[in-house]
Specification:
By secondary structure, the chain is an alpha+beta fold. It has a single domain, classed as Roll (Chitinase A, domain 3). It has 5 helices and 7 strands, in the order H-H-H-E-E-E-E-H-E-H-E-E. Strands 1, 2, 3, 4, 5, 6 and 7 form a 7-stranded antiparallel β-sheet that branches.
């Protein structure tokens, strides 16, 4: 009996690999940063002010989902009024970018299951853009960094790619985790 079950299991595994491809473990890259940790009770107290008892709107629902993720991970992050949770790893120096500033960054982007979906580090090519020309969560996250600074940002779906997602890289309504390093402000607003 066990040999039949084993044979069927091997056939199903082989079939799933042929049809769907083998799992891509390389995309589940371990991160090289740490977020302060806390125990469940302490984290629930820390995040209590940001939770909504009976959420009705998308931002409130998503905020509760993000908090649940943070408590499950044991991560204690700061919260900004826009709904982004963050931890600054390196402060950097100088001024923070403003709306309309042209900036140069490096980043890693992860889904909450740990899959890296994009990385300028992996491409060895930084990204230059105007603050205001990327998803809202990115624009808002940059206000927490100064040139040379680096941080981890958990961005709820409505401030990322929303219900549409982003092609095959990001599914609909996915909350995202970014490690962003602000290399420089290339051009100040109005320069």
């Amino acid at each position: 009996m066990h040999s039949w079950i084993s044979a069927i299991g091997c056939i199903l595994l082989t079939f799933s690999i042929i049809c769907c491809g083998s799992p891509d473990k390389s995309s589940e890259t371990p991160v090289d940063w740490e977020v302060p940790e806390g125990d469940e009770d302490g984290l629930l107290m820390h995040y209590a002010a940001y939770m909504t008892a009976n959420p009705q709107d998308t931002p409130s629902i998503e905020q509760n989902e993000v908090i649940e993720f943070l408590v499950d991970k044991g991560w204690q992050m700061q919260h900004d009024p826009a709904g982004i949770f963050y931890h600054v790893l390196e402060a950097g120096s100088g001024v923070t970018p403003e709306w309309g500033s042209r900036v140069r960054v490096h980043y890693n982007g992860y889904t909450l299951d740990g899959r890296k979906f994009d990385s300028t580090f992996d491409r060895n090519e930084d990204f230059t853009f105007y603050v205001g020309n990327v998803v809202s969560g990115w624009n808002l996250s940059l206000y927490h960094l100064r040139p040379g600074g680096r941080g981890v940002f958990l961005i709820p779906a409505h401030l990322a790619y929303g219900s549409k997602g982003f092609g095959r890289l990001v599914g609909p309504d996915e909350h995202l985790l970014f490690e962003i390093e602000l290399l420089e402000i290339v051009e100040e607003k109005g320069d």
